[in-house]
Amino acid sequence: MLRTNYIRSPTSGGHGYEPLNWHATMLYWMVLLIAMMVNILGIRVFPHIESAAFIFHICFFFVLLVPLVYLTPQSSARYVFADFENAGGWESNGLSWCLGLLTSAWSFVGIDGTTHMSEEVKDAANVVPQSMVIALIISGVLTMAFSIAILFGIGDIHLALETPTHYPIIQIFYTATGSKGATTAITCTLIVTLVSTTFGLLACASRLAWAFARDKGLPFPNYFAHVSKYYRIPVRSIVLITFIACLLGLINIASSTAFNALTSLALIGHYSSYLLPIALMAVRRFGKKEIPWGPWTLGRWGLPINLVSITYSIVLIVFAVFPPFQPVSATTMNYAGVIFGAVMLLCTMMWFAYGRKIYWGPVREVLEEGHMKK
Fold it and tell me: Are 118 and 128 in contact, with CB atoms under 8 Å apart?
């Protein structure tokens, strides 16, 4: 949904067009349909599509960097690295800073996506962790450089925050270029990058649903664990995830407040799923029982990294339920904590009523002497 809001933003505020919530939902469904077609009909060229998206990602970085560096009035280094802006209405700058962490936290969401594709990767024990680290290093360097360039070229920060497009980055590029056409073209590079990530997100989510169905963790497990003989992928799981995502898009039509709660809920859900295995691994490291390491290990740095990750995840989960602004109203209230609690309660009830009778944990399949064994 955030991607589709970018699509409609360059035209908002001009030519008599008034963007409505249902417009974003229709665009959102269009992006999901394209992603589903690419994942199913384009599965044989899917790796090439992802490689092309990666190349565009690198090239577009320089396309966006040029106007920020050469066309905008540059701020001072003191403003970029030493100035603190508290525009959320919070009395404590420390609390405002912690809430600001939530924006950067989205950069790490999805880094685990490669693991969900591991059953389709050769030498996954080495390739998967290597690809995760390489992707994090490349994207981390580009993101840090781009963030610094934005801060140097942001100009009037209040003008950017109060932009009629509702996206400060679009206003920053418009201030730099002074042209709606150029701004729209630049924004299109962001749209192409963001939409292309949807292809991989759908692929990872569908494999996760497929694996959970195979392990008897979903209703109608045999149906959704089916693998198409023609496409050799879990087509039904792809359609299932697309359908659920389309249903969630209806929330944006009913209430933007509910949609904001949904995005916060996604952040809580992701970091909760990261926190649990990392915490269990840290506890295991303190135990006496030997851990059966694979070919990829962090060595002596493993435990310190685990502890930092646990601390960081807990801080994000706690502040993800805070309202973003003060004073708090029914519109600006963050309902993510309430929804997360309700979802956990529902899952607990389903576990005792249904799940514990059929779910015995992940199914491990290994190839021994040419035969598949579970």
Answer: yes
